[in-house]
Design goal:
With about 80 residues, the protein is an all-beta fold. It is built from no helices and five strands.
């Protein structure tokens, strides 16, 4: 999985931008996120995701807060 930080949302809060750790911008749509997780995404939230091709900008799928991916000891 790739990682990054949410840097922006549209006015309705449904579409956002991830600044990926590799320096690219990745778009996402909160409607594709499991409903119980949607409230956890804010500007500054660290996330993990799978990249899906997009034209002209890649899109994220399987988006989750990075903290949910940590093991019991708190390590990634």
């Amino acid at each position: 999985m790739l990682t990054g930080t949410i840097s922006d949302f549209d006015a309705d809060g449904l579409f956002g931008v991830i600044d990926a750790d590799d320096g690219r911008l990745i778009l996402f749509n909160l409607r594709s996120v499991e409903p119980k997780l949607r409230g956890q995404f804010r500007i500054g939230t660290r996330v993990e995701f799978v990249e899906q091709g997009g034209d002209p900008v890649p899109r994220a799928r399987l988006l989750s807060p990075a903290s949910l991916q940590r093991g019991p000891s708190g390590s990634a």
